[in-house]
Design brief:
Blueprint: E1 18-22, E2 32-39, E3 45-50, E4 53-54, E5 60-62, E6 67-69, E7 73-74, E8 77-82, E9 90-93, E10 98-104, H1 117-127, H2 131-145, E11 160-166, E12 171-177, E13 180-186, E14 190-193, E15 205-206, H3 210-216, H4 229-233, H5 241-256, H6 265-272, E16 307-315, E17 323-327, E18 337-340, H7 361-373, H8 378-402, H9 409-431, H10 434-437
Antiparallel strand pairs: 1-2, 1-14, 2-16, 3-8, 4-7, 5-6, 8-9, 9-10, 10-11, 11-12, 12-13, 13-15, 16-17, 17-18
Helix pairs in contact: 1-2, 8-9
């Protein structure tokens, strides 16, 4: 699709989420998975840790809209959870399995009641000891129960889902349409997804009737091979496709850039903060977008539309406790904090409800962003805020780098709590700046 990502203008409600993965040949420390979770602007998102648990045979598990058979054991995990949902936007478990999802729009009619994509993220994390086991779990439940139900807190919004599922050695792209799916295994390079199917003829696994189902409905010519999943199942008339293509090209371009020959957690954080290409043609990204640019990865919206509500860079490295960098708010004006699955995230990061509260870091980060957005020169204010965060970010990364791989969980917990407390102090200093108070 020939799209001018810099000039493209799209309605804000047609955009949500970007997820990417870097495999071991592109990194120094194993696989990395990163995601910006874009939701309604005031939909708070909490970060929670869940311990491993065992369940009696025959138990049922209540998801958002329906119940499924409970597994004998669920893994310990960290997940980012919109305040009203059971499921997660992204997360990481004790086995080093990380998952993030995307809304995609296919020809399939959505079910009124089914599993949400966020349900499937959590179910995969709870039950997967490897990326492929999580994939098998998710596709099995998808085929049995289907996907459906509204994914919007206010109003009705139905969609199918795509996923990136990673573990310390590989990653899988999973794309779905109703109860049908295709999956591609990734073992090298970097890959990103946005709000459109990306798998063509190069899938490794698929639902049994994937091709015949498309042929019966006239979505694919009978007997034509090789079968192309995206061509057959994508809704060609959906208005969000051009914008999804723009953002996917932008993220893939950033991942392939010579600036990041070796991808690190820090480099992926920079990509998540990306505001899109500069219209002046230079390589420098925008400090602040207008909100209409199609290639904005750090999504902005004051009212309606989609806005980046929480972000992560997950490090599912083997041999150490999996590490999870979490931003609880728009990443351009907030900070990424280190968390570990066995230590759990700081408890205060779970304070996020439908209404703003003074003790909620999520709401404080969101209100800071809103103040910047309403200022006369938001780009300059973002630059000053990034300068305010920089010393602490540098210090945190230094402490994390010096942490011994065999460090006990309580030592990692202390570091995570310290980083969170320091971040809230810096946030208070930023909030008290005269330039912010004058807005």
């Amino acid at each position: 699709m020939g799209v001018n990502a810099g000039a493209m203008q799209v309605p804000p409600f047609e955009r949500s989420c970007d997820t990417m993965v870097a495999l071991g040949d592109r990194t120094t420390g194993g696989v990395l998975l990163a995601k910006n979770s874009d939701r309604s602007p005031d939909e708070a998102q909490r970060l929670i840790g869940l311990p491993a648990a065992n369940y009696p045979a025959g138990s049922l598990l209540r998801c958002q809209y329906l119940s499924v058979p409970q597994a004998p054991r669920s893994a310990a995990l960290i997940g980012s959870q919109p305040f009203w949902l059971w499921g997660f936007e992204h997360g990481l478990n004790e086995h080093g399995v990380a998952i993030g999802n995307e809304a995609i729009f296919t020809r399939e009619q959505p079910q009124e009641i089914g599993l949400l994509g966020m349900d499937l993220v959590r179910l995969g994390l709870e039950r997967g000891t490897t990326a492929q086991e999580a994939l098998t779990t998710m596709t099995g439940l998808l085929e049995q129960f289907g996907q459906g139900g509204s994914a919007s807190y206010e109003g009705q919004w139905f969609y199918d889902n795509s996923f990136l599922i990673a573990d310390p050695g590989e990653a899988w792209v999973l794309e779905t349409a109703g109860r049908h799916w295709a999956a591609r295994r990734l073992t090298s390079g970097a890959y990103s997804i946005s709000n459109r199917p990306t798998i063509g003829t190069d899938y490794d696994l698929a639902s049994a009737d994937l091709i015949s189902y498309a042929e019966e409905r006239g979505w694919w010519p009978r007997g034509r091979r090789p079968f192309h999943f995206a061509e057959a199942y994508t809704d060609p008339d959906h208005p969000g496709l051009p914008a999804a293509e723009c953002r996917m090209l932008r993220s893939r371009g950033r991942l392939a850039s010579g600036d990041h020959a070796v991808l690190t957690a820090e480099a992926l954080i920079e990509v998540l903060r990306d505001h899109g290409p500069n219209p002046d043609g230079t390589t420098a990204p925008l400090n602040w977008p207008t909100g209409q640019e199609a290639a904005t990865l750090c999504m902005h919206s004051l009212v309606g539309g989609g806005a980046t509500a929480a972000s992560t860079v997950a490090e599912p490295a083997s041999g150490t406790s999996p590490r999870y960098w979490a931003s609880m708010g728009p990443p351009c004006t907030s900070i990424f904090l280190p968390c570990w699955v066995d230590a759990g995230p700081p408890a205060i990061l779970a304070h996020a409800e439908g209404m703003a509260t003074a003790d909620s870091p999520w709401w404080r980060y969101r209100r800071l962003w809103e103040t910047v957005a309403r200022s006369a020169d938001p780009g300059a204010m973002v630059a000053r805020i990034r300068e305010a965060w920089a010393p602490l970010e540098h210090t945190i990364r230094g402490h994390v780098a010096r942490l011994a791989p065999e460090a006990p969980a309580n030592e990692r917990r202390e570091l995570s709590e310290w980083a969170c407390a320091e971040a809230l102090q810096v946030l208070s200093q930023i909030e008290s700046q005269p330039a912010l108070n004058a807005v």
